[in-house]
Amino acid sequence: MVLQGQAQAVASPEAPARGKEPRGLRIAFLEDDVEQAERVGSLLRGAGHHVHVFNRGRALLGALRVENFDLLLLDWELPDLSGYEVLRSLRAGLEAQTPVLFLTHRDTEADIVQALQAGADDFLVKPPRERELLARVDALGRRVRDAFSGGGVIESHSFRIDVDAREISRAGFVFELTRREFDVALLLFRNVGKVLSRGFIMDTVWGRGDSTTTRTVDMHVSRVRKTLGLSSAIGLRLVAIYGYGYRLERSVPQSP
Fold it and tell me: Does 135 share its domain with 49?
């Protein structure tokens, strides 16, 4: 089954900002074999990941123009573009940094070397052993998960984000944010200059098993913008990308 939809339930009320739940990875899985897609997809979802299945290379490339993923899981042999051709397109600019794991029947040394030289991060032969696949996915996705869940302090344009205390302040003033609002703000500040799709924000902040809608995402982003005063006046503005998502970007401060 090819899954490209979003959850439709309304999120529950929120408490003030405090501890957050662990999150799964947002995975794009390129696989035209329905049975294989179901089996691997179910395995990954059972481990807490969000899996979006595509059965054509061009469909995945199109989705990457309007979506963000933490990890790409690619088959090699497909009816339109090969997984190798998709990988070359990804590394040419669409997704230059996102980890890529090949999952394919091709198992010669030449195939493995070709994929790795083209920019793949890892290579598994079908059928994968379940525990090994989960371990490889976890290892490749750790950099993304750690980037979101790690502690410390982020300083950007006079804002101070204390991740451990879950507080955002500016010039000594601590802003009052709910738990979700803090997580949305943290995600934006960790990706300054990068466009984030609504789906990516939804999966990253709300996580698996906590359904929400794009309207709820828009509402939280709007509250973050208003509460933190993100605008050209302070040199850091939050921009809506029509039909896609949001970008927190540096701007030239406006004269008083």
Answer: yes
Euclidean distance between CA atoms 70 and 68, whole angstroms: 7
Q: What is the DSSP track for 62-89?
A: HHTTT---SEEEE-S--SSS-HHHHHHH
Shared-domain flag, residues 85 and 109: yes
Both tokens of residue 213? Answer: 């809608």
Whether 58 and 106 share a structural domain: yes
Give residue 115's pLDDT.
84
| Structural domain harbouring 196 | 151-250
* Percent of the chain predicted with pLDDT > 70: 81
CA distances in angstroms from 170 to 7, 33, 183, listed in the order given: 35, 52, 17
CATH number for the domain harbouring residue 134: 3.40.50.2300
Tokens of 24: 């799964």
Do 135 and 202 belong to one domain? no
Spatial contact of 87 and 100, defined as CB atoms under 8 Å apart: yes
105 and 162 fall within a common domain:
no
Residues 198 and 106 in one domain: no
2-11, 193-202, 223-232: which has the highest mean pLDDT?
A: 223-232
Asked if residues 153 and 161 have their Cβ atoms less than 8 Å apart, the reply is: yes
Q: How does residue 6 score in pLDDT terms, banded at 50, 70 and 90?
A: very low
The pTM of the whole model exceeds 0.85: no
Beta-sheet pairing, 26-30 with 71-74? parallel
Same-domain status, 31 and 137: yes
Q: Please give the share of the chain, as a percent, with pLDDT higher than 90.
A: 36
Question: Are the beta carbons of 188 and 159 closer than 8 angstroms?
Answer: no
Separation of CA 68 from chain center:
5
pLDDT at 148 over 70: no
